[in-house]
Design goal:
By secondary structure, the protein is α+β, with helices and mostly antiparallel strands. Helices cover 39% and strands 12% of the residues. It has a single domain, classed as 2-Layer Sandwich (Alpha-Beta Plaits). It is globular and about 45 Å long.
Amino acid sequence: MFRHGYQIRNQSAHHFLTFQIVGWIDIFSRKEYRDIVVDSFNFCHKTKGLKIYGWVIMSNHIHCILSSPEGKLSDTIRDLKRHTSKYILESIENATESRRDWMLHQFKYYASRHSRNEHYQLWTHENHPIEIVLSSNMFDQRLNYIHENPVRAGVVELPEEYLYSSARDYAGKKGLIEIDFMA
């Protein structure tokens, strides 16, 4: 049975992806949770061969352009989402999060709607991958979309002002995640 229109068919190709928090819950309004994602991206870059060309963390979703020359992009994304989910949920459970009870209730509700989850669900199961054809201007369009996200949201005036984005790297500043620039 066909479940999702978006699938990673070519595991080594460049993909534009979106990772969403269930219910569009604004979890990344807290630095602690954003930093878990940053650390996880850096770990996957260093140890799993994940290539990161662009990224942005918004309040309830992440956009990124990734590839895995070793052809295991789906596996790496699965591991990244599993790891971040575990540590973000632990942080919510153990920290003085003012929205703790409400958030855990929401994550439990979304978990109950899918047989894959036992207790909580943080991320949606979809990643909305769009394969990027490098011979077109698609890469630049998607990268600009990523970098303009905080500007469109009214968070900053200029893309490079937003700390949790690769726009800083493309503007010649040091970003939080090591970027693989397109040749």
